[in-house]
Design brief:
The chain is of the alpha/beta class. It has helices at 5-11, 22-31, 34-37, 56-72, 89-100, 114-124, 136-143, 165-170, 209-220, 240-252, 266-275, 285-292, 322-331, 412-419; strands spanning 40-45, 51-55, 80-84, 104-107, 128-131, 151-154, 163-164, 186-194, 200-206, 231-232, 257-260, 280-284, 311-315, 336-341, 345-349, 364-365, 371-374, 387-392, 407-408, 425-434, 440-443.
Length: 447
């Protein structure tokens, strides 16, 4: 194999415009072009197994109506708007509408307890929240402890304490011009990672963070986009990885995205991939093992026939590369492992079509990012030695890395601690070693 990594890594340079809005880049630029407006943006499988296709024009119409409604509710640039919705076209439209108004989207996953949700709502100062029927009861309970949360929009169920999505949108026009935001303007506020004790910290990400995540997405998805690509992930779109490694980059590149109202069981996953001609997937090691489970003891001589599947991004530890090799044997596709955190995005990755990979490692530094393993004194460890994995604030050309987070919301000292003594590096609190070929291997924390 021709190793293209050295040329790709050393020649890559960032270009981040001073003005950048995720909603404009991921939705309105497609919808504003007559030929692209008719393209498929989302393919949705409902709970009753109905299948709906949504074009960029249709998604932009819903987004614009909601954005106008949010503005009339008093939402202004910089305000925080919570998003509690599962995979659906409404979820995508809600996210785009929040970002189009210049507000900050605060997505919450369902694994937060009511006290944790109340804490995060208060910590972020959320004034408006949008929820589906699954999340609405917990949100209403949390609202009693959140005096600043004045308005809730209910997406698909009537509730006396919420404004109906249908009623709100029926009063709004279907055109909207996204607010001109700087690439450094805050766009996302992500909770859910424990850091330095018991508190939940909000990771603040700017609009330009999306640009910083694109190279990693391209690498792990075997140089996506390719004509005919269709993307699917079982990840929650409200999670950091579901947003940064799936929903947003897929929409940025104009790749149709499959959404499912109900979680997809391991038994149904292969049929879903086959019947929808899925080409690109993001999946965790644990979920992939469940999908491959029935074939673990079967003597499969030929891979299963999934003619369109061409790339699998594998998130999570696979220390011996067992899952990757089993996947290649069963599905005929070798996954690309990667390393990603909410603070850094996808900064380390495999990419089988461009450079040799070592099964069990999480790959090499993605072009545009600079990685090191540091000892307790903040100095780079020799190859093969374990230290704390760190991401540089600037790349090899001394350009700022746009993927890095802006800080921890309402607690700047938390960010200072992650950078203390070893600036200009961001410490990930993960441990790793780097071999002589540049592959990064995650390790347990030294005793």
């Amino acid at each position: 194999m021709n190793d293209q990594y050295p040329e790709l890594y050393h020649s890559y340079q960032w270009w981040v415009p001073s003005q950048f809005n995720i909603a404009q880049a991921c939705l309105y630029r497609w919808a504003g072009n007559p030929s692209d407006a008719r393209r498929t943006a989302l393919i949705h499988h409902g709970a009753r197994h109905d299948r709906q296709t949504h074009t960029y024009a249709q998604l932009a119409l819903t987004t614009s109506q909601l954005a106008n409604g949010l503005q009339k509710m008093g939402v202004q640039p910089g305000d925080r708007v919570a998003l509690l919705m599962g995979q659906s076209p409404k979820c995508a439209a809600a996210l785009m509408a929040i970002l189009a108004t210049g507000a900050i989207a605060v997505p919450f996953t369902t694994n937060l307890t009511t006290p944790e949700l109340s804490y995060c709502l208060n910590n972020s100062g959320v004034r408006v929240a949008i929820a589906d029927k699954l999340s609405l009861p917990g949100l209403v309970t949390a609202q009693s402890h959140c005096p600043q949360l004045g308005q809730i929009i209910s997406a698909d169920i009537e509730h006396e304490l919420a404004i109906s999505w249908r009623t709100l949108l029926a009063r709004q026009t279907g055109t909207f011009t996204p607010v001109a935001t700087r690439s450094s303007s805050p766009a996302l506020l992500l909770y859910g990672k424990q850091h330095q004790g018991e508190n939940l910290y909000g990771v603040s990400l700017a609009h330009g963070t999306l640009i910083g995540n694109l190279p990693g997405f391209v690498c792990v998805q075997n140089w996506c986009p390719v004509p005919g690509d269709i993307f699917w992930t079982p990840h929650d779109w409200r999670s950091a990885s579901g947003l940064l490694n799936a929903l947003l980059p897929a929409m940025y590149f104009g790749v149709p995205l499959l959404s499912t109202e109900a979680p997809v069981s391991p038994d149904a996953a292969l049929d879903l991939i086959l019947n929808n001609r899925i080409t690109n997937i993001l999946i965790s090691t644990q979920a992939l093992n469940r999908v491959l489970g029935p074939y673990a003891k079967n003597a499969i001589t030929e891979p299963l026939v999934l003619p369109h599947l061409r790339a699998i991004a594998l998130e999570g530890k696979d220390p011996a590369g067992t899952t990757s090799r089993h996947c290649r044997h069963v599905l005929g596709v070798m996954p690309n492992a990667f390393f990603s955190t909410p603070e850094t995005g996808c900064v380390i990755a495999q990419s089988h079509e461009k450079w040799p990979t070592a099964p069990g490692s999480c790959g090499r530094p993605v072009p545009g990012h600079r990685i090191a393993v540091l000892d307790s004194a903040g100095l780079p460890c020799p190859p093969g030695h374990t230290g704390q994995l760190a991401v540089a604030t600037h790349d090899i050309h001394d350009h700022p890395d746009p993927a890095l987070f802006s800080g921890y919301w309402a607690d700047p000292t938390a960010q200072d601690t992650t950078l203390s003594n070893v600036a200009p590096w961001h410490l990930t609190h993960d441990y790793a070693r780097i071999d002589t070929q540049g592959n990064v291997w995650l390790q347990n924390k030294p005793e």
